[in-house]
Amino acid sequence: MENWIFNYNSDNFDFGGGEEFIEVANFAALPVTGSTSVIYVTLDTNKLYRWTGSTYVEVSAQDNNPNVQTVVSAATVTPVFGNDLVVITAQAAGLTLANPTGTWVQGKDLVIRIKDNGTARSIAYDTKYRAIGVTLPTTTVINKTTYLGIVYNSTDDTFDIIGVTTQA
After folding, report:
1. Rounded to a whole number, what is the largest CA-CA distance in the chain?
2. How wide is the angle at C-alpha 95 spanned by C-alphas 90 and 101, nearest 5°?
3. d(C-alpha 116, C-alpha 121), whole Å
4. By the number of CB atoms within 10 A of the CB, which of 3, 91, 147, 156 ranks highest?
5. Mean of the pLDDT values across residues 93-105?
6. To 10 degrees, the CA torsion angle through 88, 93, 96, 98?
7. What whole-number distance in Å separates Cα of residue 158 and Cα of residue 150?
8. Domain extents for the chain?
């Protein structure tokens, strides 16, 4: 971990004054309990985080490039905090979507895209996935793409699936 002080005076880039910055390898390497006077930089993504007193919140500028996790067939797929999109292609076995890992924040969204390898495959969901107003697919549709739209609900500690659509 490297510490450095940042004094950047700009109306467009203001963290509230001269901040101490601490570099860490990745989100998982952030201290369990942070400091509210520090901006943390994850070197793998170059994202900036501030400790709120109870959780880390990203404060870096958003770009238009989603953070994509790509999987070519796996029995279990585990989304991680920071993923915007999980792409599962050529699924050649029954699929279990494991509970996402990392420290998710209220309202963080996630899209999961699934396509089989020409044979219908089962889809199972771990305990923190919850359908809201939709019916969860339990199998893929041969050679068709299915999207799951998900929003993290920290109040209930669930990943609410609020949209499901499959290619016609």
Report:
1. 58
2. 110
3. 7
4. 91
5. 95
6. -60
7. 10
8. 2-58, 68-166
Hey, what long-range contacts does 86-92 have (CB within 8 A, 24 or more apart)? 86/110, 86/111, 86/112, 86/113, 87/113, 88/112, 88/113, 88/114, 88/115, 89/115, 90/115, 90/116, 90/117, 91/115, 91/116, 91/117, 91/121, 91/140, 92/116, 92/117, 92/119, 92/121
Quote the pLDDT of residue 49.
86
Coil, helix or strand for 29? helix
Contact 82, 102 (CB under 8 A): yes
Strand partners, 91: 116
In this prediction, residue 61 carries a pLDDT of 62
pTM for this model (two decimals): 0.65
Q: Which two tokens stand for residue 22?
A: 């601490």
Per residue in 22-59, pLDDT tens? 889 999 999 999 988 888 888 888 888 888 888 888 88
- The fold adopted by the segment(s) 68-166 is Jelly Rolls (2.60.120)
